[in-house]
Design goal:
mainly alpha, 2 domains, elongated
């Protein structure tokens, strides 16, 4: 990757994370087993969601509701 492209990419990433924080979010990297990712992808498709993040958030909220 040429240096100029790396600089633009780093700046775009910084701006993206800044917008995410301003909206109350945080970017997190997970390492999950393939079967878990497959489950998240299936949920995403069944629910018509735009991203794995939305599917994972639904699973977490469902688990939270059950735990309370």
């Amino acid at each position: 990757m040429p240096k100029a492209t790396a600089t633009v990419s780093a700046e775009n990433n910084r701006i993206y994370r800044q917008r995410l924080r301003a909206a109350g979010g945080k970017e997190v990297l997970f390492q999950l087993p393939r079967e878990t990712v497959k489950l998240i992808d299936e949920l995403k498709q069944r629910q018509g969601l735009r991203s794995r993040s939305q599917a994972l958030l639904q699973l977490i909220e469902h688990g939270r509701a059950i735990a309370q």
